[in-house]
Amino acid sequence: MSFKIYVGGLPYAMTETELTDLFVQHGNVDSAKIITDKYTGKSRGFGFVEMPSDDEGKAAITALNGTQLEGRTLTVNQARPQEDRSGRGGFGGGRGPR
After folding, report:
1. Which of 23, 25, 27 is nearest to 14 (CA)?
2. Percent of the chain, pLDDT > 90?
3. β-bridge partners, 75
C-alpha cells in the first residue's frame, strides 16, 4: 500500500513532472498529482504524492516540510483520508414539490 503525502504551498506554475522530480530525491515515487480548478484548469497550489514505502514517505516529509520553493513555503505531511461528502444537500436546498 502506498504512503500518500499532501503537499501545500506549491508554486502555481509547477508541473506534475517537477513535483515528481522534487520527491524522487528522497525515494521512489508511485504518482504525483497537482490539484487544479475544475473551471479554469489552473493549479490550486497543492497536490498529492504517493511513495511505495512509509520510510521513504516519512523521509521526504522530514526533508521537505517548511522548505522554500520559488518564494513559497511548502507544507508537507501525511495525507488524511478524504472526508465523506455524502451529507451535502443538492440544488434547491431540499425543498419538496411546489
Report:
1. 23
2. 79
3. 8
User: Is residue 57 classed exposed, middle or buried when 0-12, 13-18 and 19+ CB atoms within 10 A define those classes?
Assistant: buried
Average pLDDT over residues 30-52: 96
CA-nearest of 54, 80, 70, 73 to 8 is: 73
The H helix count followed by the E strand count for the chain is: 2, 6
Q: Residue 83 phi/psi, 5° resolution?
A: -70, 150
Alpha helices in 1-98 (DSSP H): 16-24, 54-64
| CA gap 84, 67 in Å, rounded | 31
Level-2 CATH architecture, domain 3-80: 2-Layer Sandwich (3.30)
Check: pTM over 0.70? Answer yes or no.
yes
